[in-house]
Amino acid sequence: MNRIITILFSLFLFSCARDKIVYEFYPAFITPIHYTIDIEKSILSQNSKQLKIEGHIQGSNNLINEEYQIDRKVLNTFLERIESVKLDSSIQHNREVLDGISFRFSKINQWNDSISLISTSPNRQEKYLKDYQILDAFFALAHSTIKNNNKGQSLTENIQDYFHYTLPIKRVSNNPIEYRVAGRISGCRDGNEALISLLDSLPNNEPIIFDIRNGSFAPCLTELLEEFEQKKRIYYYGIFELNQIDLDIETLEDELSEAEKDNSNGLVGGIRRQLKELRKDRKRIIAESKLRPNSFRTKHELRKTIANIGYNK
Hints:
Blueprint: H1 2-15, E1 20-27, E2 33-38, E3 43-48, E4 50-53, E5 56-59, E6 65-69, H2 72-85, E7 91-93, E8 101-108, E9 114-120, H3 129-145, H4 150-160, E10 169-174, E11 177-181, E12 183-185, H5 193-201, E13 208-211, E14 215-217, H6 222-231, E15 234-237, H7 240-261, H8 265-288, E16 295-296, H9 299-308
Parallel strand pairs: 7-9, 11-13, 12-14, 13-15, 15-16
Antiparallel strand pairs: 1-2, 1-8, 2-3, 3-6, 4-5, 8-9, 10-11
Helix pairs in contact: 2-3, 7-8
């Protein structure tokens, strides 16, 4: 029986070897991102897009255009999960929401025929089961593939933040132990049982690193974090607000360039004002960033400090 399953899956992989899978994300306020999975080449492409309608420009075509090699085992697992969804015809799930996100998933074969699922801000309910099966498979592949590229990771995490997921803290390294925080951890001690459980599970006798370049903890959680910092060797690096402002500035600069081409005076003035405010905010954040003894701007600075106090792996 196992042999039959293996043969059938192998035939499935062969049949779709020249196919591609495309995810298009259109979030409110931030840059749209398209991801293309080339099955034959095991390549994930990440491309930002700019939307233009009369009187409005959103996003940047130049914010990111990257390709990543996908581990074949990761790709095979992804394809198994997509095949299990059994999307045999195109589906559209529309909802009326404010400040949400729309996405389009497409399976495109070698003849350019496609089957797609289009959805707007789906909830984790039975009606949207296929939506989240498709999303879960994608984010698992993306987080396993987009590494050592903070911009690529941040843009993907910002997209994922529009959907319904659990505590956005992911272990990314075992030596030393490192976690990446994606987005804002909101709330206070009450209601953050998952965070408390994670902190409580951390070892006491070795450094624990939190990458907060694209994440932050609510002020209400400061007391909780300090409590665990007294018992454990916890360190942080990165400045979340600075990371987000840099993405916004880069996007607005591209929007300004496009608005100036069209001589859209109303847009040009508005974008210039936004850029001026963001650049001012950036200087303020750098000037006011009073880092605690266990917080650092870069991972390199953090690792040097850890080495100097007698821990170096």
